[in-house]
Amino acid sequence: SALTLLLTFSSLLGKIWLMLIILLRMAVVVLAGYPLYQDEQERFVCNTLQPGCSNVCYDLFSPVSHFRFWLIQTVSILLPYAAFSIYVLHKVAMYIVRMHCSVHGCKGNKGLSSPKDLKELCRSAVVDRLDCGADNLSVLNFSGAYTVHLFFRTLLEAAFAAAQYFLFGFFVPERFSCYHSPCTSTVDCYISRPTEKSI
Length: 199
Known about the structure:
Its main location: other. InterPro entries: Connexin (IPR000500), Connexin_CCC (IPR019570), Connexin_CS (IPR017990), Connexin_N (IPR013092), Connexin_N_sf (IPR038359). The chain is mainly alpha-helical. The chain is built from 6 helices and 3 strands. About 65% of the residues lie in helices and about 5% in strands. The chain has a 3-stranded antiparallel beta sheet, covered by helices on one side.
C-alpha cells in the first residue's frame, strides 16, 4: 500500500541521512581537525626559557587533545546506534525462526547447525509468509527501542558538549596566562590560529 511504501521510503531516507551525518562529522574531524591540531603543542609558544614551564602551561590550557576528544565523541555517538542495530537484527532473526516454527513446527532434528540451514530457513520463512496473504502479515515494532536509542544519543551529545565547554570552552583565546610550578612567574603563552580553531 501507499503507507507501507511511504514508511519504507522515509526509513531509507533516515538511514541515508544518518550515514551522511556520520560521514560529514568524520570528514570534519579528520580533514579539518587533524591538520589544524596536529602541531598544536609545537606552536604553543610561551615567553619563558624556564625548562618544563611551556609543557605545564600547555597541559593546563589543553588537558585533553581536542582531536582525540572529538574522535572519542564521534565513536561514542555511534555506540547507541550500533546497539540498536544489533537489537533489531536479533529480534528479526528470532521472529523469522518463530514464524518458521509456527508454519512447519519445530522438531528436535531440525536444528540450525550451519549458516546454510539459517539461509534456507529465512528463504522458506519469507516464501511461507508471502503465501499466507496480506491479512496475516505483521510488522515488528521497534519504536520503543528507537526512542531509547535516540534518548541515549541525545544524552551523549549533551554530555560531550558540556565536557567540551568545561575542558576548552567554545572559543580559543589568542593568549593564555599561566602561573604554575616550575614557572617562576606569570607566563603568557600564545596559541596558533585561534580564530580558525574557534570557528
